[in-house]
Amino acid sequence: MLLPLLLLLWAWGALAASPPVPPRSLTLRLLQTVIFHNANSTDIVGTALVGDLETHSLDCSPCKIRFLQPWAQQGLTPKEWQDLETLIYTYLSNFIYMMNDLVKEEGEGYPFVTQFTEGCELHPNNTSRQFCDAGMTGEDFVSLDMDTGKWVTRRGDKLTLKTQEILNYNRAVAIALRFLLRTCVNELKSFVKHGKESLERQERPVAVVFARAPPPAGTPAPLLLVCRVTGFYPRPIRVAWLQDGEEVVPGGQLNSSGILPNADLTYQLRSSLAVEPGDGHSYACRVEHSSLGGQSLLIPWGQSRRWSPGLAVGIILGVVAVAAVAVVLWWSRRRGYQDVRPGETRA
Fold it and tell me: Where on the phi/psi map is residue 253: left (φ > 0), alpha (ψ -120 to 50), or beta?
């Protein structure tokens, strides 16, 4: 009934000899959404992700698995893919039938949405974790405890408790799930091997620092410095502000947008720092990312230290003096060439 659909793929494709573990923690996540419009109408979508890279999608009109990466078809023959699609259709039908019966029995109404997240995490020290969680209408529904093999829930409504009772009564579902989730680790290692180029892609961040329009004269509002970082991959990144070379500790003056996706499969974020106008300090944004080879980007705010009027006048006078000397030298050399008559030489 609630047997995860795409997990059969990972079980069939598991390798006998496991490839090496990934250099960083990686997750194979299977997401499935079923929208119940009424007792006779449902929409189903599914997707599989390795890390944050989408590898498969499920289109259930009819149920077809689509491969979104060139290496996503590894491990199964065309005939096995067809058999898998048939199994998916069977289990989906059973799940929809069970949910409609429960809704009718408990007097619940339509529409509602169920969401499932199943998969595994693999860490560089070769440890792993498996998970299977279900949600309903955006809230936690039931989860499988991988240690005990029992379904647990934090909700107390009748529909949830009835579902938990049915799942715990049908032990075959939990047994199959725990086995399939353990084979998920081997398949994740297989994807690390075949999709190495895609999964280890590195895109360097591009960063710029600018200030929002300063507040009007006499206004006590702070000046907002913004560090915009974009175009980086993979997702983990660290952005910090420096004041006179020292890192600014987290507090109310710091704010961040969080990491957001770009359309080209890279990421972006904005970090802002509130400062007092004309406080005399220097500010810079520091960016640390795996694509930088252990180094970091340091982008100073160009107007961190304002020039005093005396310093500005001194610099202008210096420039004028240098220009005057250059003109005199050029004119003297030109006169020297003009004073030489044809046939004469100048010592």
Answer: alpha
